[in-house]
Amino acid sequence: MTSNEVLPLFSSPICINTFELDDNEVESLKREKYSKNGFTEYDGLSSDGTNILDKYTKLKDICTKHMDSFIYDELKVSRNAKFNIVKSWANVHPPNHSAHKHAHSNSMFSGVLYLDTPKNSGAIMFEAPNTHSTWSTRTIEPEIVEYTTLNCRNYRIEPHRGMSIVFPSHVDHYTEVNGTDQNRYSLAYDVMMWW
User: Fold this and answer.
1) Which strand (E) or helix (H) includes residue 62?
2) Which of 78, 88, 172, 184 could staple 93 via S-S, CB 3.0–4.6 A?
3) Is the pTM of this model over 0.85?
């Protein structure tokens, strides 16, 4: 019998890489003013303003390089198409805080760069909405004996310092509860194509 060829057609690719971070920029960013997100009491805090990366050039360079690599090298988009970070903010999740399930509107791609992530401070979860059929329509769901990227409807990524994740903005995602006694810090951004 010959081996199967499996094509992950019509996927929502998520790109992960790890980068060295500048300690001075990370520590400075942690001292920014943070305000409650306003969703729930335990939904974390975000930095004031919508262009935090303009103040942190080394972190912005990491985000830009990773996004460019994802768009041009992995997705094979023409370099004639130009992309720009249109919004950026920092997040802090104190103990017992999480981030509710959401997607990002008014952008094509989104990214998160993890700055300070104690072990067990909450993984990021990606989830296919119930309205999105994958290999199953959700009408009939057989038991799965081993979850893989081909058959799962949600996917867990345990973050660590310097990890960068970029993904299409429409993909639903959330973070688990920070189960430590320390804050988890991350930087998020949205990217849009321009002409």
Assistant:
1) helix 57-68
2) 184
3) yes
The C-alpha atoms of residue 69 and residue 160 are separated, in whole angstroms, by 20
Environment class of 152 (CB within 10 Å of its CB; exposed 0-12, middle 13-18, buried 19+) = middle
**For 70, phi and psi rounded to 5 degrees?**
-65, -50
Question: Quick one: residue 162, left, alpha or beta (phi over 0 = left, psi -120 to 50 = alpha)?
Answer: left
Q: What is the pLDDT of residues 43-75, one digit of tens each?
A: 899 999 899 999 999 999 999 999 999 999 999
163 token code pair: 């990890």
Please report where in the chains the tokens 């429409």 appear, as a residue.
170
Amino acid identity, position 92: V
- Per-residue pLDDT at 169: 96
Show the low-confidence residues of the chain (pLDDT under 70): 38
- At 25, the amino acid letter reads E
> Rounded distance, CA 165 to CA 176, Å?
16
What kind and span of H or E run contains 26? helix 23-30
d(CA 120, CA 184): 10
* Helix axis angle, 57-68 to 23-30, nearest 10°: 110
Yes or no: say if 100 and 178 are a contact pair by the CB < 8 Å rule. Answer: no
Q: Could you give the CA distance from residue 43 to residue 23 in angstroms, rounded to a whole number?
A: 26
Q: How many CB atoms lie within 10 A of CB 16?
A: 13
CA dihedral 169, 173, 179, 180 (to 10 degrees): -10
